[in-house]
Every structure is written in C-alpha cells, then in structure tokens.
Amino acid sequence: MAIDRRHILAFGKIDTPFYFYDMDLFRRTVSGLASLSSRNGIKVHYAVKANTEERLLRHISSYGFGADCVSGNEVEYAVSCGFRPENTVFAGVGKSDREILSSLKLGIGTFNCESLQEIEVVDSLAASLGLTANVSVRINPDIDAHTHKYVTTGLYENKFGISRHEFEPLVELLGRCGSIRLHGLHFHIGSQITDVAEVYGLECRRASEIVRWFEDKGLVIANIDLGGGLGVDYDDPDGNPVADFSTWFRTISSELPLRPGQTVHVEPGRSVVAQCGTLVSRVLFVKSGETKTFLILDAGMNDLIRPALYGAYHKIENLSAMLSSESPADADASGSQIYDVVGPVCESSDVWGAGRLLPRSSRGDIIAIRSAGAYGQVMASRYNLRDLAPAVYSDDLAAAGGDL
Ligand SMILES: Cc1ncc(COP(=O)(O)O)c(C=O)c1O
After folding, report:
1. Pairing relation of β-strands 110-113 and 88-90?
2. Which class would CATH give 23-272?
C-alpha cells in the first residue's frame, strides 16, 4: 500500500488536517502517462485545475507536456511552473477581455473557444495587438459520459461548446475573422469516466463525423483535442493506483482514424493526480447520537468539498488502527463499528461518509481520506475562517527520516 507504517508514525507528529502526496506514486503515474501517450502519438495537456501544487506542476512540465488552463491566472501560473506558452491551451466558457489579452501577449498555443461571440472577441483583441490567435473550437457533441450530472459537460443541456445548429454560421464567421488561425476542434464530455472503451469510443466516432463535416466545408482540422475525463478507482485506490491510460489511448487509436498531418490531444487532470493525494485528519470526538455514532474529524468540507458538492465517495481509513494491528484480521478482531464520519463545519452536508464500517475509533486516531489529490486542495476554502490544509510530500518525510 502507498501509506505504510513509517508514514503513519510520521503523520502522528504533524498537525492535521493536511494533504499528503505520495510522490513515488505520482512519478509512476506521470511516467506511465508519458510512455503510453508517446507510443500512441497522442499529445498531453495536463488540466491544471485538478491540482496546482507547484511541485507537481514542475514535474509534469518537465516531461514536455502542455497545460490545459481555464483562467488567465492558471495560464500565467502554468507558464511560471515550466509549461511552454506554445503548449498551453486556454479553455472555458467565460474568458474576460483582460484574460484574453494577457494570454495573447504571452503567446499561448490555443484558445479553445466556446461560442461564436467569444471567437469574434478573440479576433478583435488579437487584431488590436497586431497578432494572430490560434483558435480551436469547442464542440458540444451531445454525448452522455455516464457520469455524475455535475461533471457531465458534453450534452446539449450543458453550457459548454458550440452545438450543431451553429456549425454553418461558425464556418461563415471563421471565413471572415482576419486575426484568427483555425488550430482544430476541441471536445470534453465529462469527468470521472469509467466506461472507458464505450464512452471514449463514442466520443471518437462522433468527433470523426464532425471533423469530416468541417473538412467537407473546406476547413483544415489539423488538431483534434478530445479533452480529459479519465476516471480513477475511488473504491479501491490501492488495488488500482494508476488510471487506465492504456485502454483510453488504445480506444482513441482504434476509433479515431487520422489523416496525415492530424494530431490528437488529450487533457487529463484527475487521472494524473487523484490517487497520490490523501487528506490526513484526526478524530476530534466520538459522539453517540440518538440513532447513530458520529466520528467528528478535524478536516471539513472546506478542505475537500467533493462529498458535499457531488455526494462523491472517498475511501476512509483509520490509520492508527492499522498501525496497532499486525494484520487486517487483527483489526477486525479488535472490533469495528458503523459511524457517520463528519467534519467540524457548521453545515449538515459536511459529511465524509454516512454509515461507514471502520475499526473502533477513538479521539486522536489518524484518519485518511483517500484519492483526494484531484479537485481537493484546489477547491479548498477558508469557510468558517478555518485554516487551509497545507501539503506534505512523501519525499520530505523520507528526507527528514519521518520528522518534519
Ligand atoms: C475542458 C476540460 N479539459 C480537461 C478537464 C480535466 O478533466 P479530468 O480532470 O476529468 O481529466 C476538464 C475538467 O473539467 C475540462 O473542463
């Protein structure tokens, strides 16, 4: 397992809550992604929104990957962490003029534009600077990604991308924009996609049809960006620590035929960083309610909002109980109990997991909330004026011999 006895002993000396990053797993994930993507001729842009820890970004950029950003600040930060501007794409339905101008000045690779009006604005701002902007057009392919409705982005009911009824006006618009160069088409249909072959197969076939439609109108679609979305195993992070990049890329290679001169791009976020991160917390109190027993942790929804926001599942482990037992069988023998594991924030949605079976737990026990590396620390807030949970890296623990 990723977290071993040495880690747990070291955690006991650190103030909680904090985000622990298993850097060995992170490096293994990134190098696996690099070798599989280059073998399949697929260009990777890491979706910076998933985790913006500088150390992680510097390692990812050192592989020559690009960055997928959704704000002007992300663009500037990604470049400051070693991503090359020309490998940086700027997506999002609502880019401000200030963000567009600063990204143009930085010379970013592509604006992934999401509406006709946005294309007109990018064109006129580029003209005002005497520049030509590379633009990829985000298409809404109306595909169900079989995932949570809050992370589905490729259906007509979603705000993202340009849909079919605007294809003809789009061709006409691109024809009259003098400060735009068409880079390609962009798709992104959702996140935490686990029906990998089926959903991405469908996305590739739909993308192929749409690319053909635009090329038949005389446009050159040199780049096809299929977005991110590859899911991770939240139920069994130790059984499946690395996401299934292999099925993802195999599906793309077989379902999206390319003509010479075309390149496929992807934008993974969650699959790169989710499993290496754990939110480490302590039990503050064990409270017997009328009908339930509550395990009250010192980490709350302000530290990791996914359960409150999406009802997301994260595996919860009592690390102190693991330490005191020689084997899982011993842990069972010491007794287990059903708890509602909750945080300290003054909201009833501040629940880590209801009805979770855990080893009998006590005040001070160290609790791990697993698979917290993606959309965790980046979404943290200071709600209730709580402190932000800092990052702790396995490399630093090892270097300090377990003491920080
Ligand atoms: C346009 C775009 N690309 C890539 C991603 C990354 O998705 P994931 O973290 O699921 O791989 C997102 C996530 O929302 C996105 O909106």
Report:
1. parallel
2. alpha beta
In a mutational test of the pocket of ligand 1, which residue from 37, 43, 49, 194 has the highest number of ligand atoms less than 8 Å from its CB? 49
For every one of its 404 residues, what pLDDT tens digit does the chain have, with 9 covering 90 and above? 578 899 999 999 999 999 999 999 999 999 999 999 999 999 999 999 999 999 999 999 999 999 999 999 999 999 999 999 999 999 999 999 999 999 999 999 999 999 999 999 999 999 999 999 999 999 998 887 676 666 666 676 778 889 889 999 999 999 999 999 999 999 999 999 999 999 999 999 999 999 999 999 999 999 999 999 999 999 999 999 999 999 999 999 999 999 999 999 999 999 999 999 999 999 999 999 999 999 999 999 999 999 999 999 999 999 999 888 755 555 555 689 999 999 999 999 999 999 999 999 999 999 999 999 999 999 999 999 999 999 999 999 877 776 65
Domain 5-19+276-399 classification at class level: mainly beta
Q: Evaluate: CB of 103 within 6 angstroms of ligand 1.
A: no
3-state secondary structure of 277: strand
Please state the pTM of the whole predicted model: 0.95
Q: Which residues contact 91 (CB under 8 A, 6 or more apart)?
A: 68, 69, 70, 112, 114, 138, 186, 188, 267
* Ligand 1 centre distance from Cα of residue 323 (Å): 37
**Atom of ligand 1 at shortest distance to CA of 229?**
10
Contact predicate 316/367, CB 8 Å: yes
Residues of each domain in the chain carrying CATH 3.20.20.10: 23-272
Residue with tokens 């340009």: 162
Rounded Cα distance between 145 and 198, Å, is 9
228 lines ligand 1 (CB under 6 A): yes
CA of 182 to the centre of ligand 1 (A): 22
Instruction: Indicate which atom in ligand 1 lies nearest the CA of residue 270.
Output: 9
Residue 385 DSSP label: G
Structure tokens at 152: 């589905």
Domain with CATH 2.40.37.10 in the chain: 5-19+276-399
